[in-house]
Design brief:
With 166 residues, the protein is mainly α. The chain is built from seven helices and no strands.
Length: 166
């Protein structure tokens, strides 16, 4: 039986089970896997050995795990358990990769307070009343501090150059 499954499987090198090229065939093959095989493949994706998988699932022997993983490899038409686990993970995700032109931003903005100047994300100034009040407070605090620091720097330079303004 196992030999007939292996002979009926396509060669993994010919790209027949590439999930981007033939998703329906991949789905049909994944549906042929038993729940046990799927759970084993998910543990393989976590880099568990056959002995670890047998201990985690309560199977009596790591050889039983190896046998189920070989059957899963034959069903999916791949050569290694890692390839089979990656195929199952791709199928479980169920999301096609977006073309880069349609990709969403990778990170949310790290600045909670909207900037008062135009940005790439917001070409127009769309400040709410709360944001406008926040920026007013920030500017009211920063301006005197900045002016004081600038004045102190100016006086320091004058004293260092021995210039007597009075």
């Amino acid at each position: 039986m196992l030999i007939s499954n292996i002979e009926s499987c396509p060669n993994p090198d010919d790209g027949a089970l590439n999930p981007r090229r033939n998703g329906s065939e991949l789905a049909a093959r994944i549906e042929q896997l038993t729940d046990r095989q799927r759970s084993y493949l998910r543990l393989v994706l976590q880099l568990k050995s056959s002995k670890d998988i047998a201990a985690a699932t309560g199977d009596t022997s790591y050889r039983a795990v190896d046998k189920q993983l070989l059957k899963a490899n034959a069903i999916l038409g791949v050569g290694t358990r890692v390839e089979a686990a990656q195929m199952l993970a791709t199928y479980d995700q169920g999301v096609e990769h977006l073309h880069p032109a349609n990709a969403l931003p990778s990170a949310p903005p790290d600045f909670r307070l909207s900037r008062p100047w135009p940005t790439v994300g917001a070409a127009a100034n769309m400040l709410t009343l709360r944001h406008a009040a926040s920026w007013t407070v920030i500017i009211a605090i920063v301006m005197p501090v900045g002016l004081t620091a600038a004045g102190m720097a100016y006086l320091t330079l004058l004293l260092l150059l021995r210039f007597q303004p009075f």
